[in-house]
Amino acid sequence: MYKRILVPLEHSPYDVAIVEHVRALAKFCGASVVLMHVADGWAARNVHQLNLRESEEMRIDREYLEETCESLETSGLEAECLLAGGDPSKEITAAAARENCDLIAMSTHGHRFIKDMLYGSVANEVRHLSRIPVLLVRGERRAVQREGPAS
């Protein structure tokens, strides 16, 4: 079935649904997991082109990824994490190809029409750009304590 699953996280309460779903799926399939966050602040989008240092936003995002990765490893899964900067949908699809993933698993907010038009939908863009299967799991906004701003 699946051997390597890419899980883009947005560093929000919606991540809980996809992480728990993938935890069970990866155990069932014996798959490894690649957690990814695409920071999209100004510094994150320009860090390589302008040779910038990692921003506070990116440091917090990296810590979040590492903690989530550690929780999957504690469950007995093989997991690693990637922090990228730029356009989320393009970075996600590029990482899936580069990391030899055979599934992209994402949480969605369940927006409808107007909100998708206003905010866009990374999941929808990934679905259109990707050449590998995309699993969408609707998340719930849950109270999660964390440091710093969401990205």
Share of residues in helices: 40-55%
Order of helices and strands, N to C? EHEHHEHEHHE
Distance between the termini: 32 Å
CATH level 1 class label? Alpha Beta
Strand content of the residues, in percent?
15-25%
Low-confidence runs of at least 5 consecutive residues: 143-147
Q: Which structural class fits the helix and strand makeup?
A: alpha/beta
Rg computed from alpha carbons, rounded to a whole number of angstroms: 15 Å
Question: What would you note in describing this structure?
Answer:
The protein has 151 residues and is of the alpha/beta class. It has one domain (4-138): HUPs (Rossmann fold). The protein is built from six helices and five strands. The protein has helices at 15-29, 42-46, 56-74, 88-98, 114-119, 122-129, and strands at residues 4-9, 32-39, 79-85, 103-108, 134-138. A five-stranded parallel sheet has the order 3-2-1-4-5, sandwiched between helices. Strand 1 (4-9), helix 1 (15-29) and strand 2 (32-39) form a beta-alpha-beta unit. Helix 4 packs across helix 6 (122-129). The chain is globular and about 35 Å long. Residues 143-147 have low confidence and may be disordered.
Quick summary:
It is built from six helices and five strands; from the N terminus they run E-H-E-H-H-E-H-E-H-H-E. With 151 residues, it is α/β, with parallel strands linked by helices. Helix 4 packs across helix 6.
